[in-house]
Amino acid sequence: MLEKMIVVGAGHAWRKFYRQTVTNLEIELLGTVDPAVEDGNADGGWHVRTVQDIPQDAIANDVVVMVLTPDHYPVIAELAGRGFKNILCEKPLVSRASEIEKLEELVKTHELKLYAIDFYLPKMFGLQVALGLVKRGDLRRGWVAVSNPEADGQAMLGEIEGVGVQVLEAGDFCLPDIASRPYLANDKEIGGMVLDLITHACGPLHQARLLENWQVLNASLARLSTVTSGHLVPVADTSTEVEMYVTALLEANGVPVHLVFGKVPIATGGLWALEIRGKKGMFFTGLRTGQPAVLVGNDGKVVTFLLKMTTYEFVVREALLYFNGLLPGFDGNYGAFLTSIKVGQAILAKYGER
Question: In which domain of life is the source organism classified (predicted)?
Fold first, then answer.
């Protein structure tokens, strides 16, 4: 069993969110890698400044590497070059469109098993359970509390007639977040909401098989007039201006799919939600951590789905199951990432046609 870990990027995300999860799951931390952290040994094991400094005896098939650095693809490539095979990585897997094909080639050449972290995927795991995509033998099935485990979610929902996803970040998630990460609104290469938020919107739909045979029918893009106190204005030049608010209408297997995602300069609030309209019922979930999903039949019957653990625990546990070969047919969210990026590129292209 793979229960040994190396962490690359021992900064804020590691200290505030992941370190306690790794400890709680009794994963052996071999060491940490971070040029900016001096006290890495406080986590146990060794601490080095670069991937090249990782001890040779730590490179083994039973070791998992967690990548929490700001820029991911160069680190993944360096780890692959050292011989590591099992890598879980914070979103986004790549920060530049030019790295997508490079990543695909890297995975193929080095036979990597990548696990792409996106916390909207565990938040939406109840949908996969409701649609019967998580079978009873799946080790993750017990991770979701279902109010009526015997209910037939597919029958309650019926034929799907429409899907909508909204990921709108206001309040502290907008201007204050941009102040700490100005590249989001200023850098055309690594900024923009397609790279930052598209997997939030499309990843869960891919995992629920709701993005098959898709095409983009319409798209609109807006940017911030200023990144300190601005308002939204239409994007005029997609080659230079950075999109911060995106709406798109897709068709997938003949079903309309409406996406809205981005950062909006409003003082408070936001909206994180997914809704599915079926002929016989509705499925709704707030994509905020800790909120349940609800399936309501036209006859008034209700089934709720609630994650039993934190999203951090979910992704680490799921990644370990994946790396240990205990989730047949699961690809570590790699397909969800690739589909999301392709949808995002198609949205940008559609808007560019106007």
Answer: Bacteria
